[in-house]
Amino acid sequence: MLRYALLEVRRTLRDPGFVIFGTAMPVLMYLLFTNVGGAGDGDGGADWEITSMVGMAAYGALSSAVGTGTGIAEDKSLGWLRQLRITPIPPRQVVLGRALAGSVTVLPALLAVLAAGGLINGVRLAAGQWAALVVLLWAGALPFTLLGIGNGYRFTAQTTGVVNVGCLMGMAVVGGLWFPVELFPGWLRSLAGYTPANRFADLGWSVTRGSAPGALTVAVLLGWLFVFGSYAVVSYRRSARTA
Length: 243
Known about the structure:
13 helices
């Protein structure tokens, strides 16, 4: 399983489009949000830059994680998945191996946004906070990798791309990764607290506030991990029957 995961990591990182666009877009969006039109000036400017940095780092990691599914759908159309099924690797290990590979590929976007925050926007955090941000956001991206994997096994390559973009945009907006949830109407603000993207970003926001992630954040993410993980395994088995 680990050899399979390493193979998938190498295949993904060899794709210049994935690395360039998956890394550059979140950084560009972060810098635009925090530097265009006087954003971040005045009271609360530093807090907004930190909050936006974490939100956009979470968005970049989420985008790369969900994007794992597009590669799976392409592999399915090329017959690579049929080759995997004749190996002795069980379905759960295939899904887990691909999830581990997807978790590694979220790091470029995550690190690039955090680097832009520190080097360009002058965000200052303690060394331990920077390390905790990377570790928590890296680990917290696993549910979204499983969501992308499930989409890749279930849909065609073209449909997977559309579904992934829809999932990404919806989760980012409702989860408050682009705009503070305090600006949402009351009912949507309450809903946002139970969305996976909002609780994913809260892993990082809690670190910048100098506290550990709350119990509700951990519980919500574990719940979504189970949901998306089950979805990925069921989709893999379904693809075996329909391919």
